[in-house]
Amino acid sequence: MDVSPMDIAQTDTSPEHRPPHVLVLGGTTEARLLAGALHGRLRVTSSLAGRVARPVPLPGEVRIGGFGGAEGLERWLREHRVDALIDATHPFAGTISFNAARAATAAHVPLLALRRPSWVPVPGDDWHRAGSPAEAAGALRGLGRRVFLTTGRMGLAAFARPDLDDHWFLVRSVDAPDPGTPTPARMETLLDRGPFTLEGERELLRRHRLDVLVTKDSGGAATAPKLAAAREAGLPVVVISRPPVPDGVPVVTTPDEAARWLAQLSGGELSG
Ligand code: NAP
Fold first, then answer.
1. pTM for the whole structure
2. Which domains are delineated in the chain?
3. How many CB atoms lie within 10 A of CB 45?
4. Atom 10, ligand 1: which residue's CA is nearest?
5. pLDDT exceeds 90 at position 2
6. Does ligand 1 have an atom closer than 6 angstroms to the CB of 151?
7. Which protein residue has the closest C-alpha to ligand 1 atom 40?
């Protein structure tokens, strides 16, 4: 971080003084890095949805589980005297981002979205954009029959459709699909968590004779090697576009910039 979070911390030693409290909505590498950079200088609470069975350990305070919608989050912000809210959730976690915008407005808490940049195609890529998992499933016919599906277990149901029964899917996800989730007729599950290597991705494409990749536009380096491997192999890639960030919410792309935004609040709202 090139901005010391010390800049944000207050030096007031009066009995009423409490360190500014920042709530980081997490579940991403960027959220973890930001919490690590702020921890010890501010009071930082990281919030996780609780989807992953064994989350990576986090510095600072951690709370796990939903808030109960925008109203629940608003209540949490007030009850825990949160001075700033950073939505550092995954670019595809659209519901919590929408709730964060509503709750922050209602509780008068400054809100920032931290979103890693989108991936962009480079020469040699054969990308096909889709607006949703359902659209991606619809695009598959004609592109390939052996599908590397990396959209996670939550979007899996969209690919469980009769017109894809003759397709085969290698489904890679951190945790196994919930029992009862509709799944494609012919599939194999590969439980794994990034970062992945180019060599490893090449080997997967080769071993399973995959001929099309489906991915969300998650961005970031940890899962990008699959794109390079697909490019090298001349495979088409179906890329699901991100939902928009809620109107009016400022966006930064790095933990550094988020720390700078907090520093700018230090003379104003973030006064502890
Ligand atoms: P979502 O659809 O936007 O959220 C669904 C509900 O989960 C929210 O309404 C909220 O419940 C709860 N929730 C989500 N994120 C939360 C957080 N950080 N802290 C507390 N509650 C949270 O989100 P999702 O796509 O299921 O993703 C869940 C989490 O996994 C996110 O935190 C995200 O950063 C992480 N993640 C998601 C993806 C992805 O592809 N979607 C990938 C990697 C990591 P209440 O309404 O009860 O508050």
1. 0.88
2. 5-117+244-265 (3.40.50.720), 127-240 (3.40.50.720)
3. 19
4. 66
5. no
6. no
7. 92
Instruction: Quote the longest CA-to-CA distance of the chain.
Output: 70
Instruction: Report residue 7 as tokens.
Output: 């800049």
Q: How far is the CA of 66 from the centre of ligand 1 (A)?
A: 8
Query: Does 271 sit in the ligand 1 pocket, CB within 6 Å?
Result: no
Q: Are 114 and 51 in contact (CB under 8 A)?
A: no
The residue-averaged pLDDT of 59-82 equals 97
